[in-house]
């Protein structure tokens, strides 16, 4: 099993996006790998609860392929002072996020939820 973080910040996916994802998922199945895709939290703009919307088609493809998708946009969100910029976390933010991510992934692997 392997886990790689992936953030889908692409706001206008193309057919090529889905083809590339389908190829990746097929290759993972062929090699008996279980991938973990993660919607990573970014610092939201004022008035927003999350920094970006998910591409529901991508999420469906990932889950249909039996892979793990974790939406950490809210659960892993950090206070504004834990961001070095819009995306990158400070060391304190990285530590907090990593602990939340590890706990969420462990729960998912243990219980399937």
Q: What does this protein structure show overall?
A:
- It is a single chain.
- With 113 residues, the protein is mainly alpha-helical.
- It has a single domain (15-111), classed as Rossmann fold.
- Helix content is 41%, strand content 7%.
- The protein is built from 3 helices and 2 strands; from the N terminus they run αβαβα.
- It has helices at residues 15-30, 56-64, 91-111, and strands at residues 36-39, 68-71.
- It has a two-stranded parallel ribbon with strand order 1-2.
- Strand 1, helix 2 (56-64) and strand 2 form a beta-alpha-beta unit.
- The two termini are 17 Å apart.
- The mean pLDDT is 88.
Annotation keywords:
single chain; 113 residues; mainly alpha; Rossmann fold; two-stranded parallel ribbon; 3 helices; 2 strands; 41% helix; globular
Largest sheet: 2 strands, parallel
Identify the CATH class: Alpha Beta
Terminal residue distance: 17 Å
Query: What is the assigned CATH homologous superfamily?
Result: SGNH hydrolase
Rg over CA atoms:
15 Å
Shape: globular
Residue runs with pLDDT of under 50 for 5 or more positions? none
Please provide the count of β strands.
Answer: 2
Residue share in β-strands: 5-15%
Which strand order does the major sheet show?
Answer: 1-2
Number of helices: 3
CATH topology, anyone?
Rossmann fold
- Backbone structural class: mainly alpha
Order of helices and strands: HEHEH
Question: Mean pLDDT, as a whole number?
Answer: 88
Helix content: 40-55%
Tally of discrete structural domains: 1
Please tell me the CATH architecture by its name: 3-Layer(aba) Sandwich
């Amino acid at each position: 099993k392997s886990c790689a973080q992936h953030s889908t910040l692409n706001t206008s996916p193309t057919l090529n996006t889905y083809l590339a994802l389908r190829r990746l998922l097929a290759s993972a199945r062929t090699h008996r790998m279980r991938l973990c895709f993660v919607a990573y939290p970014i610092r939201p703009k004022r008035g927003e609860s999350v920094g970006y919307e998910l591409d529901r088609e991508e999420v469906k493809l990932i889950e249909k392929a039996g892979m793990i998708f974790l939406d950490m946009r809210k659960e892993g969100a950090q206070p504004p002072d834990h961001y070095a910029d819009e995306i990158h976390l400070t060391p304190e933010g990285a530590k907090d996020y990593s602990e939340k991510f590890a706990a969420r992934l462990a729960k998912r692997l243990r219980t399937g939820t």
